[in-house]
Amino acid sequence: MSVSLNEKFYRVIANIPEGRVASYGQVALLAGRPRAARAVGAALRHVPAHLELPCHRVVFSDGSLCKGLIFGGPGIQEQLLKKEGVAFLPNGKVNMRCCLWESSGDFSR
DNA sequence: ACTGTGACTCTAA
DNA sequence: TTTAGAGCCACAG
């Protein structure tokens, strides 16, 4: 099956469990392109809202969130993550230590 | 085929 | 610790 990497990124993100977060690099890695973190972000930017894609569970490798260029507005992503049980640090970043998604699936194909 | 753009990541200072 | 620069990949025009 030949699908655009872009679509593959969507699949990976769609598989992120609730209360868990993944970095862009993580998504790219699972998609088979460990260096395509930027492509992931660029792709998400074009994601239609009707796909139910949990893009709010995708954060930077350091646990920080996007600067406000998200679906509804600034702070929305943080609110959603907190609501799902994601632990946040006092500095406003996600606790990657405990909430980083440990995927063991095969999204590379 | 080439260039520009982007919600990225890493290393160095 | 924070800031700056370079590298990376996919997509659209």
From TrEMBL:
Pfam families on file: DNA_binding_1 (PF01035)
Top-rank lineage group of the source organism: Bacteria
InterPro entries for this protein: ATL_DNA_repair, MethylDNA_cys_MeTrfase_AS, MethylDNA_cys_MeTrfase_DNA-bd, MethylDNA_cys_MeTrfase_DNAb, WH-like_DNA-bd_sf
Catalytic reaction equation(s): a 6-O-methyl-2'-deoxyguanosine in DNA + L-cysteinyl-[protein] = S-methyl-L-cysteinyl-[protein] + a 2'-deoxyguanosine in DNA; a 4-O-methyl-thymidine in DNA + L-cysteinyl-[protein] = a thymidine in DNA + S-methyl-L-cysteinyl-[protein]
Keywords linked to the UniProt accession: DNA damage, DNA repair, Methyltransferase, Transferase
All copies of domain Methylated-DNA-[protein]-cysteine S-methyltransferase DNA binding, residue ranges: 6-86
PANTHER family (UniProt xref): 6-O-METHYLGUANINE DNA METHYLTRANSFERASE (PTHR42942), ALKYLTRANSFERASE-LIKE PROTEIN 1 (PTHR42942:SF1)
Name recorded for this polypeptide: MGMT family protein
